[in-house]
Amino acid sequence: MMLQSTIGILAVLFTTCSNQVHDKPGGNGTASASPSYTAQKTDSHERDSLTPGKADLAKIYTQAIAEYIKTVYQKDQIHFDTLFLGKQVEFPDTGLPATISGVNIRILAPQEINVYKSGYRKSSPYINLIGFVENDQAEFIFVTFYPGFDHQYDCYINFRYNSEKKEFYPEKSRVEVLVRNNEGKPDHYAVYEDGKHVGDKPVGKQ
User: For 145-201, how does the pLDDT look when each residue is reduced to its tens digit (9 = 90+)?
Assistant: First the structure.
């Protein structure tokens, strides 16, 4: 399942981000998967493999970013000004629009990430966007940092493909806020769904 793969990637990300992000955020230590459509077998029938075009990826990534903006607003009533997205080596060249839901979208090449460090704040965070797109589902994780490269929260958004309408629709989303102890070290995640706190999760739990 994509979720299991995601958790594995995040386990690596979370255990290394405090060092790697301050050194070179968006480098090889940061996870980012290129979306791909792969052949799958269902009820002994193999589905046709699909090759996503630039327009297809632009559409689902735009949907995901719009859903992220909505989900975070639902929880914190934050009006974003700009989203700074780190362009990893694997980050798909989707041709995203300059603004999404009224928010400026800035794609940063690796060499630009440190340049804008002083501008990362609650209303203009830096995001490592991890995306998985398959022929019937898509999953996105927005690993969010501010001020500078301080890890604040992660937003998980899942989509399901509607074959009749030939489009993805949001299925579920949640926000996991990193809570630190009195010494400033990661203690646990506070989990939110539909803007409401639904429980806590230990750091590193899959």
Answer: 999 999 999 999 999 998 888 889 999 999 999 999 999 999 999 999 999 999 999
Q: Where are the domains of the chain?
A: 2-37+49-202
Give tens-digit pLDDT for 150-165: 999 999 999 999 888 8
Place of tokens 């699909």: 50
- Tokens 């989707």 map to which residue? 94
Q: Which helix (H) or strand (E) holds 12?
A: helix 2-23
Q: Pull the structure tokens for residue 35.
A: 């979306």
Contact 142, 127 (CB under 8 A): yes
Q: Report the Cα 48 to chain-centroid distance in Å.
A: 27
CB 9 within 8 A of CB 3: no
